Amino acid sequence: MHTITAAARTTTWRWPVILLGISGLRLDRGTRYRPARLLLFVLAGALYYLLTPVLTTPAVATAYAATVWLLYYGGLSLTLGGPGRTALIARFGEDRAYALYEVALGVLFMNQGFAQAVVIHAYGDSLPAAVPSWAAYAAGAALMAVGTFYKLWAARTAGLDTYYCRDMFMGRPLGDASELVVAGPYRHLRNPMYGAGNLHAYGWALWSHSPAGLAVAAAFQLGIYLFYHLCERPFIERAYVRT
């Protein structure tokens, strides 16, 4: 996601829509699947709430976070970098296949955030006593603010289609492949979504005084960089960069 096409520069989605989109609920693309997406989002939230007493036990929280990591990065890599996308398109057609993929990816986005939440809750306040509470709160608040700002800014600049890797799913550029554009936060950072955009997860963990939360944030950031180097970067070089 470190490069965007000229077409993506015209993205003007409002901030609340972008925030919901990066959280797993897309409301910016047509109306056909919007009620189903909204219902799934609400039901998933209710299910998480009901299962909180079970999910926040240490063993279950650890297993849950590991499972989400494997499904998210393993499933994303197999779908976009393996045979998954072609099989879905052959079975359902391009538009419907992408809609199904998009909803599934949105559910994984939701689970990623909830995985860190249950790990933080399960392992409680456990920062070393030498770390002052005020410092953890101040650093956590700063990182959450900076990370959220960069994540929203990058998603708004590149567009939610880029955030959901629509071009990779389709196997072709979404816009003019002859011109790569650097705009917004991409002027300053190569991968603002994957880099600065993930600082909010570390901030949340610090605010919660949770070393385990920091470990989960690092594991998920490592996963997205592995996906980038193994799947996304080769696609970008193949589809957008002229040789």
Task: Please specify the SSE layout and strand pairing.
Elements: E1 4-5, H1 15-23, H2 34-55, H3 58-80, H4 84-92, H5 94-123, H6 133-158, H7 160-163, H8 166-170, E2 180-181, H9 199-207, H10 211-239
Antiparallel strand pairs: 1-2
Q: Can you put this structure into words, describing what you see?
A:
The protein has helices at residues 15-23, 34-55, 58-80, 84-92, 94-123, 133-158, 160-163, 166-170, 199-207, 211-239, and strands spanning 4-5, 180-181. It starts with a strand and ends with a helix. It contains 10 helices and 2 strands; from the N terminus they run βααααααααβαα. Helix 3 packs antiparallel against helix 5, helix 5 packs antiparallel against helix 10 and helix 9 packs antiparallel against helix 10 (211-239). Helices cover 68% and strands 2% of the residues. Strands 1-2 form a two-stranded antiparallel ribbon. With 243 residues, the chain is mainly alpha-helical.
